[in-house]
Amino acid sequence: AKSKSNAIGLMQIMEPTAKEIADKIDLNISEEQLYSPELNIQIGIEYFAILSEAPEPESSSATETIPLRD
Hints:
By secondary structure, the chain is mainly α. The protein contains three helices and two strands, in the order E-E-H-H-H. Strands 1-2 form a two-stranded antiparallel sheet. Helix 1 (about 15-25) packs across helix 2.
């Protein structure tokens, strides 16, 4: 399936992201191949692995940026 935002397959991966991930794991893929559940899930798992290794962004919650009133 392809969403309104052009995300493809079970893992709803955008084609540019899928191609970037595929390059990292030495795969050459086409948009049509992303409709394959096996390949789509493989790319999705690799993407999640990369995200899980990324440093977490610094928090900027409202309580840190706006002083509380007494």
